[in-house]
Amino acid sequence: MKPRILIAETKEFSLKAIFILRQIGEPALIDIQKDGLKKALSEYDVFWFRLGFRIEGGDLPENPRCRFIVCPVTGLDHIDIDACAAKGIQVLSMRGESEFLKSVRATAELTIGLALALLRKIPQAADHVRAGGWERDLFKGRELLGKTVGIAGMGRLGKITAQYFRIFGCRVLGFDPLPFEEEDVISCESLEHLVAQSDLVSIHVNYLPENRQLFNDALFSKFKKGSVLINTARGALVDSLALLRNLQNGHLAGAALDVIENEHAHHDSPLIAYARQHNNLIITPHIGGNTLESFEKTEVFMAEKLKAALSE
Q1: Its pTM surpasses 0.90
Q2: Can you list the domains of the chain with their CATH numbers?
Q3: What is the side-by-side order of every strand in the sheet holding 171-175?
């Protein structure tokens, strides 16, 4: 009997991936809600989703039919891995797939886009024109050329993002707990040393429990006054209230975030409330990897990975 595979977020799902999945199982494309999660894990052998769910221990049925949860991302803080393992559920993700991930650059591109949007006041200028205005002097911005950019986390995405900033003529600094070598990137001895010198700090740190709220009041106090922060990594790396305080008091000139703490409860976020009233904070809804090209590549890759896992 072929395994039943539920694809729970169906929008523009790769046809190539579906072709592979039909070779190994019976894929069903059905958009479900959070309240249907426990039922799905009881009725399907494979549960496939993107970032639309937060799976905790209480979401798992007593005796799940599900053997595999597939999520084509690298950060897994939205899945209780230990609870899944205790129920015999293996989580398949992009974590550790470093060679393949070199071809997936959407988040690095968004980092540059957010930096330009923040420095050049692009969202406000576009809104101004939509409202009937044409006052260019209201939106005098700043350039990337000549700025010092600090890359916090020199893994795959950190290195790619560093290359992109170099193309814009930036002086690039990097910090990582592990030794790294990257052409034209100056290695810093500590994160504090990096942020103290940088006009713009971009976060590309892996989320681990010990990194929770790594960017807190103590670290923000070391930032260069008037600098800006970009975060396309994970929201929990930044203490939201500490960031808010440093935006309010002017120590930071601005921030652009694709991720925030507790995204599942975003309606209550103090950062989103602040962004509604202030132009020095831009927030996008975790769209870093959300491109047609990235979805196609990763879904095909994960279909092959699931195929191999089912054959073991």
Answers
A1: no
A2: 4-96+292-311 (3.40.50.720), 106-283 (3.40.50.720)
A3: 185-187, 171-175, 148-152, 200-203, 227-231, 252-257, 281-283
